[in-house]
């Protein structure tokens, strides 16, 4: 049996936009070409490749894992199942970090729990004369960050560490520390639904109340911060007051929060 692109586009199990994204991946052609050539018949090999992706998508696998990339801050980041898929709301953390980076601060930035490197690389690409370090506990995640740094020509350093455990005085101090740590409560039902089912659990939850990694970072960060440096953290919709409290208890000043595009308090931080 022969299938044309048009036959595949008539499938009602997926939205047309998603069919096009999957076809783009399988045919290695831009969407405009696919639409203009929809009477083309596709080979059996490509047909079965497409059907595999289509069925996985119907079973709920995130489209970013199926096509192998996700756009973040206008760049395409490679992703696979070892890394969290970068979220649009995390772009706020990048914007907040960039805005708090004054020339007088110097320009050393640390991204803790870098995953695919989306935050670290975006900050590097947005600012000249900057030194950026990304760290993660997961070596597979670091290998994805390494691929992205090469692909996007971002000369960042990557370090394997359990938060600050492998940092020593040779590492020097930073002007901005950012982190989007795993902050979901281990019993949160969302972990068993939607995209989260497919993402690495270590990227999502601390296996406790969601605040243990955040407090660990807050209590240790100041040892690695220059005077006047900022720490910015992404957190859950109901965690901002607790994060503010922890920052104040740890001696941070200028403690402040920012709302994401959905009006949710998403980023909180302060300076030392
Ligand atoms: C929510 S993901 C954030 C990924 C990426 N920064 C982003 O925003 O898309 C959290 C990241 O923290 C890393 N992580 C989890 N526990 C860690 C630990 N104890 N030390 C360092 N990194 C850790 C995970 O491997 C994961 O890459």
TrEMBL record:
It is an enzyme of class 2 (transferase). One of its GO terms (biological process) is methylation. Gene3D superfamilies: DNA helicase RuvA subunit, C-terminal domain, Vaccinia Virus protein VP39. GO terms for molecular function: nucleic acid binding; peptide chain release factor N(5)-glutamine methyltransferase activity. It catalyses: L-glutaminyl-[peptide chain release factor] + S-adenosyl-L-methionine = N(5)-methyl-L-glutaminyl-[peptide chain release factor] + S-adenosyl-L-homocysteine + H(+). Substrate binds at residues 180-183. Its EC number is 2.1.1.297. Residues 98-188 form the Methyltransferase small domain. InterPro entries: DNA_methylase_N6_adenine_CS, HemK-like, N5-glutamine_MTase, PrmC_N, RF_methyltr_PrmC, SAM-dependent_MTases_sf, Small_mtfrase_dom. Signal peptide: none annotated. Pfam families: MTS (PF05175), PrmC_N (PF17827). Residues 13-68 form the Release factor glutamine methyltransferase N-terminal domain. Keywords: Methyltransferase, S-adenosyl-L-methionine, Transferase. S-adenosyl-L-methionine binds at residues 113-117, 136, 163, 180. Belongs to the protein N5-glutamine methyltransferase family. PrmC subfamily. Methylates the class 1 translation termination release factors RF1/PrfA and RF2/PrfB on the glutamine residue of the universally conserved GGQ motif. This is Release factor glutamine methyltransferase. It comes from Candidatus Kinetoplastidibacterium blastocrithidiae TCC012E. The gene is prmC.
């Amino acid at each position: 049996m022969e299938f044309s692109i048009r036959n595949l586009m008539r499938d009602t199990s997926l939205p047309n936009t998603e069919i096009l994204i999957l076809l783009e991946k399988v045919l290695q052609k831009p969407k405009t070409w696919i639409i203009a050539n929809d009477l083309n018949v596709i080979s059996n090999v490509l047909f079965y490749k497409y059907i595999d992706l289509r069925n996985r998508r119907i079973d709920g696998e995130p489209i970013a894992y199926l096509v192998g990339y996700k756009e973040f801050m206008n760049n395409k980041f490679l992703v696979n199942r070892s890394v969290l898929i970068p979220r649009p709301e995390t772009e706020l953390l990048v914007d907040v970090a960039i805005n708090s980076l004054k020339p007088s601060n110097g320009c050393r930035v640390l991204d803790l729990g870098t995953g695919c490197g989306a935050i670290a690389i975006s900050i590097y690409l947005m600012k000249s004369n900057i030194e950026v370090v990304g760290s993660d506990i997961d070596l597979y995640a670091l290998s994805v960050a390494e691929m992205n740094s090469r692909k996007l020509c971002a000369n960042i350093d990557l370090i394997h560490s359990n938060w600050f455990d492998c940092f020593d005085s040779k590492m020097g101090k930073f002007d901005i520390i950012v982190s989007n740590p795993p902050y979901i409560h281990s019993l949160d039902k969302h972990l068993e639904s939607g995209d989260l089912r497919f993402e690495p659990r270590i990227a999502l939850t601390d296996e406790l109340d969601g605040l243990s990694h955040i407090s660990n970072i807050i209590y240790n960060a100041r040892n690695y911060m220059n005077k006047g440096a900022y720490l910015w953290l992404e957190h859950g919709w109901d965690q901002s007051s607790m994060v503010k409290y922890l920052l104040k208890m740890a001696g941070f000043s200028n403690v402040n929060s920012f709302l994401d595009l959905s009006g949710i308090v998403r980023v909180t931080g302060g300076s030392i």
